[in-house]
Write a structure and sequence with these properties.
This protein has a single domain, classed as HIT-like (HIT family, subunit A, 2-Layer Sandwich), CATH 3.30.428.10. The protein is about 30% helix and about 15% strand. By secondary structure, the protein is α+β, with helices and mostly antiparallel strands. The strands form 2 sheets. A 5-stranded antiparallel β-sheet has the order 3-4-5-7-6. A two-stranded antiparallel sheet has the order 1-2. It is globular and about 50 Å long.
Length: about 180
């Protein structure tokens, strides 16, 4: 790979002055490799994850009705999701107990991320339905995305790239260790 100031070649061999930051793991997301073909619980990754060992599934914490997991295709470092175990798509269809636990685990996730990573802020929310931006609309999940001033700057807008300074399993281990008893 050329050093700073050296020219690279574009995709057809012409030199340019752009640096490259390769994120090949994103290709699986772009191709939709882990996205279910239908809305069934059998194909749903959020239904399959709880059957995995915590580290393999990137599970940070297991509650009674919901669990906290790192996003396999994160918007930024430390991007967590709070998912009910039950295969449910629409937030109003959660039980009162599920809604309470999702809220509690979201608050706890923010506390843990603050303690471990000291973000400047958070984006927290649910994308409901395909039109609402849900990548997997059949199983609701609450996003907890830590943010730092200038964290996403030009990279995702111009470069269509997200930068992640740490392996997901290392981030998962830090969060799981910091999660209270």
């Amino acid at each position: 790979m050329p050093g700073a100031g050296e020219q690279h070649q574009d995709g057809i061999g012409r030199p340019d002055a752009l640096e490259r930051l390769w994120t090949p793991y994103r290709m699986a997301y772009i191709r939709g490799e882990n996205k279910p073909n239908d809305a069934s619980a059998r194909q749903c990754p959020f239904c399959r994850i709880p059957a995995m060992p915590d580290r393999e599934g990137l599970i940070v914490h297991r509650g009674e009705l919901s669990y906290v997991v790192l996003n396999l295709y994160p918007y930024g470092s430390g991007h967590l999701m709070v998912c009910p175990y039950r295969h449910v798509a629409d937030y109003p269809d959660t039980t009162t107990d599920e809604a309470v636990e999702i809220a509690h685990l979201t608050k706890q996730a923010m506390r843990v991320v603050r303690a471990v990573s000291s973000p400047d802020g958070f984006n927290v929310g649910m994308n409901q339905g395909s039109a609402g931006g849900a990548g997997i609309a059949a199983h609701l999940h609450q996003h907890v995305v830590p943010r730092w001033v200038g964290d996403q700057n030009f990279m995702p807008v111009i470069g269509h790239t997200r930068t992640l300074p740490q392996l997901l399993t290392d981030t998962r281990d830090l969060f799981a260790e910091a999660w209270p008893g």
